Amino acid sequence: MGENIVVVGVDNSDTALRAAQAAAEIALAFGARLHVVTAFEDDRTEEFGVGSDRWIVSGPSRAEAVARDVVASLGWPGGSGEVTSAAWRGKPADAILAEAQRLRARLVVVGNRRMRGIGRILGSIANSVAHGADCDVYIVNTTGDAD
């Protein structure tokens, strides 16, 4: 059995935020640590600038910022357990599975985005995680429909 850790996979979408909110509620209810993970597929670095100001942004730093932003938006209450985040290089499902296995998570939470229509035929992150996880998987209805 895994440790008392809930892993949630996110990107910068509203549906991922809904999955993260559900994961936070579950983690708080069970006194679990919440771990937010996001993925990036390239190490490309871009430079942005206005006048003499320059910013260098890489794939990993953008992904880490997404995870941190999701954590910040959750309003995790102080003293209610730990919340952490990470960015992994690779496909989203692989990143979520790798973190869950590395942490020996008890539960993985993902949204149901792309589980209908052509996404159902081609596969989805939720489908890949559900079939590959070594722990329980909770798929959150993030579309607002009651399928």
UniProtKB/TrEMBL annotation:
The UniProt similarity line reads: Belongs to the universal stress protein A family.
The protein's name in its UniProt record: Universal stress protein
**Listed Gene3D superfamilies:** HUPs
Tell me the superkingdom of the source.
Bacteria
Per the UniProt record, the source organism is Sinomonas terrae
Q: List the Pfam families.
A: Usp
- Tell me which SUPFAM superfamilies the record gives: Adenine nucleotide alpha hydrolases-like
Q: Which residues form the UspA domain?
A: 5-140
